[in-house]
Amino acid sequence: MEPYLVEMRGIHKQFGGIKALDGVDLCVRKGEILGLLGENGAGKSTLMKILTGVHQADTGEVLFEGREVRFQSTHEAYSLGISIIFQEFNLCSNLSVAENIFLGKENRKHRWFLDYRNQYKQAGEIFRQLDVEVNPLSPVRCLGVAQMQLTEIAKALAVNPKLLIMDEPTSSLSEVEIEKLFSIMKDLKSRGIAVIFISHKLEEVLEITDRVTVLRDGKNAGDIDTSKASRERLITLMVGRSLDDLTAPDRVKPEKEEPVMEVEDFSGPPFVEGVSFTLHRGEILGFAGLVGAGRTELAQLIIGYTKKKRGILRLEGRDTDIKGPVDAVKAGIAYLSEDRKNLGLNLAMTVRENLTMCIHDRLRRWLVLLDQKMERRRANNLVEKLHIKIDTLEQLTRNLSGGNQQKVGFGKWIATEPKVLILDEPTRGIDVGSKAEVHRIICRLADEGAAVMVISSELPEILKISDRIVVMHEGRVTGRFTRQEATQENIMSAAISTAEVKKGVCI
Ligand SMILES: Nc1ncnc2c1ncn2[C@@H]1O[C@H](COP(=O)(O)OP(=O)(O)OP(=O)(O)O)[C@@H](O)[C@H]1O
Ligand SMILES: [Mg+2]
Q1: Number of structural domains the chain divides into
Q2: What is d(CA 190, CA 231) in angstroms, rounded to the nearest whole number?
Q3: Atom of ligand 1 nearest to the CA of 401
Q4: From 343's CA, which of 55, 231, 406, 499 has a CA 20 to 30 Å away?
Q5: Distance, CA 49 to ligand 2 centroid (Å)?
Q6: Helix (H) or strand (E) run with residue 192 in it
Q7: What are residue 393's DSSP bridge partners?
Q8: What CATH number has the domain bearing residue 424?
Q9: Ligand 1 closest atom vs CA 39
Q10: β-pair partners for 424
Q11: Whole-prediction pTM value?
Q12: Least confident of 10-19, 116-125, 185-194
């Protein structure tokens, strides 16, 4: 058997009053794909940040190739061959894709000149290997979330690492890209490179890993060969008990079909072309499609974040002109963005501030004073309802784990009790137990009368909660299904179909 490439022993890490890691061990061999699992806030990202020199452990030791190491910076870790794709993107939005990939490890022609041409060529080569379409010349600010994710992956591969750590690399990718990523991981494995793979999608973990290490509340909860693992076994290790009720309740479709939002012939070239649909009261309408199908761009046209070229929006029968996100909130449309860092949350604000910032109008006494007691009560309710793991409401949102930040973003919008709720990848980065909870909450909001539009790259999620499903491909609608008609197969074939559908057809 290969010797251990990395051994972490008895790692402790405390942030103020929060014990993030309490004596954790983790080992990985050369050529091994190790899954790292645990609920939101279990300590996975923190452990990986210690391994890569972002944080320093309070106590405990790390051995790399048998030698003790104590990295003070990510640079030190990189130089030994440890590469990480962080859960949150770390890209400079004004630089091009290729410049980002080679940032800090630039190709030089002579001593002073950067060899841009070679960088673009190499970046193109990495994307060709990955078999995905990303233009190395494009500025990162013009990319969608999936392309940013692919850029992060390319950046990590560009250094020819000995160990590659992937902290939820698939959370913004659709199944086609995930398959491509998996074949790259298998190739790395065959070349003796070790991979640590963090994901909340248990099927992925069961498919690609050799062994799984599970954390629970900052401690080791188990270590298991993937060949002996099952979904149930992994869940039991993660949450400490079996979760039998992971499914959303069966939905009863509302009897009367009252249109709440009608979108007619929306176009915002080049991403959206002639899209029409009607969203009814109490309905969950799923939007399926591959990455780049134009679903997020459609949502952003609806809320006025980007300007449409053509199209009519009717809310409860009235033509409505929405000029920007503020108008959208006033009109009762809430949009949970897939990109929580830029469009969703203010990470420098506290959990309380984020949760209540959209409902300040309703929390005022005598028009000016904020009713702080009421504000705290509302925020606490949301924390409880969504099982957000925090120390206090006054904690900075930045310091929450990724999944818990996602829940805060979700809570902020449900607090507004919107008429139309547009959710873009609502369970991105959320653990299995909480995911079922989020699904239940979405269904409950629909039962209470909200009209919900759910964009998700996870087909099982779409199939589980939607009443009807719209499929998009390259900016156009290529399929419409009722819950009964929809299957994984017919949705996928519509998602890759190039057949044009007639413009302006409503369902
Ligand atoms: N910089 C920080 N300051 C304060 N607390 C922190 C900081 N970083 C992490 N924590 C806390 O440490 C705990 C573990 O967080 P971590 O991000 O490692 O979880 P995770 O397992 O990666 O979760 P997720 O699946 O949601 O990404 C959490 O309670 C989190 O709030
Ligand atoms: Mg994390």
Answers
A1: 3
A2: 26
A3: 17
A4: 55
A5: 10
A6: none
A7: none
A8: 3.40.50.300
A9: 25
A10: 455
A11: 0.81
A12: 116-125
